[in-house]
Amino acid sequence: MAKLLSCVLGPRLYKIYRERDSERAPSGVPETPTSVTTPPSSSWDTYYQPRALEKHADSILALASVFWSISYYSSPFAFFYLYRKGYLSLSKVVPFSHYAGTLLLLLAGVACLRGIGRWTNPQYRQFITILEATHRNQSAENKRQLANYNFDFKSWPVDFHWEEPSSRKESRGGPSRQGVALLRPEPLHRGTADTLLNRVKKLPCQITSYLVAHTLGRRMLYPGSVYLLQKALMPVLLQGQARLVEECNGRRAKLLACDGNEIDTMFVDRRGTAEPQGQKLVICCEGNAGFYEVGCISTPLEAGYSVLGWNHPGFAGSTGVPFPQNEANAMDVVVQFAIHRLGFQPQDIIIYAWSIGGFTATWAAMSYPDISAVILDASFDDLVPLALKVMPDSWRGLVTRTVRQHLNLNNAEQLCRYQGPVLLIRRTKDEIITTTVPEDIMSNRGNDLLLKLLQYRYPRVMAEEGLRVVRQWLEASSQLEEASIYSRWEVEEDWCLSVLRSYQAEHGPDFPWSVGEDMDADGRQQLALFLAQKHLYNFEATHCTPLPAQNFRMPWHL
């Protein structure tokens, strides 16, 4: 009877992975009382085969879930319509509640029938036995057996906790339950007294900004968090996850962040291979509709690196909502997991981000300054110009205030706090992070990210003459145009390197540098072009084109 109840309340099982011979326990090792034997993988298909009763009950419950999601998103319009028609009176609401209660009872009955279908299936009974054993005792053998199943991630046991003692030995106090530290935006009206009257005047605007950010704004910024989109992408995500587990020997793990969100991660270990880059770990930060199952994780994988992918809060198996604070909390526990559980030193970790993932990548670089390098692909400096691009001009004040207060993705500000090597990849046909049209390459916000970084690190070099020549170089949309501008200014790379190395040897590596203050205009222009070319390279593609492995390279450093 207990097993039947477990089948009724248990998670949905999607797939049974092919068990690799290297993962099977040695035959001479006796089993522990809490471990569960697994049948040979050849006897079962890799796709879970539900019985007819479970299959049909699952379809009904999935359809009910979709209808509930549609009702949730359309509820404001529905309530407005019902109010106008007079259907919200007590005499109309009471019968409706009876219908709703009857429907809930019917759905509960369907769930029970699904449980009976699972109970009659030896595959599911075997899975639920392993899951219960793992929750009782997270031994290595039990977790190895559980990793052969793909199921609803809510029921996956937590593998790493943000409060684990070993995870904070070297930290500077660590995050609190309120979250990690973020850079806060400056007040819109500096010098204004923060009196009670001013607070009351600002209250309607603050309420409006809050409502916009938590309804339309968050879903526009992170469409991957919308349930209906995830439901449509589920087959693709399951296929991508199976590829990572079965072909790349990936290991899935659940991390608990300081805000209580559970973060879904996938780790592919290449340290045992002959390729030297396998000793380096690339942490991948996906875009606003990207998932590690099908995202930018494939590029460093093909290049031979060890890789750690993770999903934004509210994406696929991760819980929560993707606001900046939650994003930073998630990134913090991911980096801690890489250092203290996977065993990588910060000097062996590279942060690689695509598009909006640049926010968490730059936050990690700012917060963990010993990280080896940062690679930002198709990213931007600040969210406000891109948000203003897609909203009406009359909403300018509301959009700016909403972004600054609730959705402040200040990538450039965070990146300037990092002292290590940085590489920016600009896509010459980018249609997403340009503020005009894709053909106008000068409206690509990656240009602004480069300029802000160089102006912070080399303020004397990036004075008027240097800034002007770098802008000319950024106007080039092909390698031929780049080379033409570069050769026109006759940049002597050996001289530039000697100047930079001499300054570093005399003054140390910490930015900003005052190199170039005693240099003539021609020297500053050469140095500015040299530095721009080392920090950014063009990839002739649109925003969503996967980056080929041959284009994945480490940033330049002295």
Q: Overall pLDDT, averaged?
A: 90
Question: Which stretches of 5+ consecutive residues score pLDDT under 50?
Answer: 21-45
Report strand order across the widest sheet.
3-4-5-7-6-8-9-10-11
N-to-C series of helices and strands: HEHHHHEEHHEEEHEHEHEHHHEHHHHHE
Describe what you observe in this structure.
This protein has 558 residues and is an alpha/beta fold. 47% of the residues lie in helices and 9% in strands. It has 18 helices and eleven strands. The chain has helices at residues 2-9, 52-85, 90-119, 122-136, 140-146, 196-221, 227-246, 298-302, 324-340, 358-367, 383-390, 396-406, 411-415, 445-457, 464-474, 479-488, 493-507, 521-535, and strands at residues 13-16, 149-151, 160-161, 251-256, 262-268, 281-285, 306-310, 349-354, 373-377, 422-427, 536-539. The strands form two sheets. The protein has a nine-stranded mixed beta sheet with strand order 3-4-5-7-6-8-9-10-11. It has a two-stranded antiparallel ribbon with strand order 1-2. α1 (2-9) packs across α3. The longest helix has 34 residues, at 52-85. The protein starts with a helix and ends in a 19-residue tail after the last strand.
